[in-house]
Amino acid sequence: MVKLNKIYTRTGDDGTTGLVDGSRIAKSAPLMAAIGDVDEANSAIGIAVAALHPNSDATAMLVRIQNEMFDLGADLATPADPAHGFGPHDMALRIVPSQIARLEDEIDRMNDDLEALRSFILPGGTDAAARLHLARAVTRRAERAAVAAGSDRDLNPLALTYLNRLSDHLFVLTRHLNAAAGGDVLWKPGATR
User: Fold this and answer.
1) Which of 41, 49, 109, 129 has its CA 20 to 30 A from that of 13?
2) Dist. CA 86–CA 11, nearest whole Å
3) pLDDT in tens, 113-142
4) How far is CA 59 from the centre of its chain?
5) Rounded to whole angstroms, how far apart are CA atoms 126 and 179?
6) Rounded distance, CA 32 to CA 145, Å?
């Protein structure tokens, strides 16, 4: 487990930060942008959770996802292991196929009760859905940043898949929440011309 007695270490005062293996990289590196965007997406999900009933299925799904977002950040911050590659092992927290499969199962379950899309959806609706639309957009940015970071160094491909699937999950969850409150807010092309 993590135990932090002191919050500041002064080791990053030179503009670098440490990775899980002890190596240091610039805070401006593409990898750090991706890790920061994952953290921001997680925070945006937390803001959405605050607008939901604490005992709802949506809250349970999102809290589980928030924990996985920390796993994802650790995965990105852990270089490939010479013996295990990007496979999970005692010294590396990795995104695994079962986490992606669970997201897909939840997407399918929520989507079963929704009408087919006939227009693009405006980011809005209920308070929680609007917050989740923002979390979805930040998750898409995190995915783009992780793809960019992957051009500099090898990353766990499942981490990228997880981010892609998570943005789909958040989109379907916004539709699910809005369906219970009257439906999606639909785009009306050219409506203000």
Assistant:
1) 41
2) 27
3) 999 998 999 999 999 999 999 999 999 999
4) 15
5) 10
6) 9
Whether the model clears a pTM of 0.85, i.e. scores above it, the answer is yes
The per-residue DSSP string of 67-134 comes to HHHHHHHHHHTSPPBTTTBTS-BTTB----HHHHHHHHHHHHHHHTTSPPP-S-B-S-SSHHHHHHHH
Cα–Cα distance, 121 to 67 (Å, whole number): 28
177 neighbors 129 (Cβ within 8 angstroms): yes
CB of 118 closer than 8 Å to CB of 60: no
Element (H, E) at 66: helix 57-76
The predicted-structure confidence for 165-191, as pLDDT tens digits, reads as follows 999 999 999 999 999 999 999 999 999
| Nearest residue to 129 via CA among 74, 189, 170, 79 | 170
Identify which of 17, 68, 16, 35 has the alpha carbon closest to the alpha carbon of residue 150: 35
Residues 6+ positions from 2 with CB-CB distance below 8 Å: none
Burial class (CB in 10 A: 0-12, 13-18, 19+), 59: middle
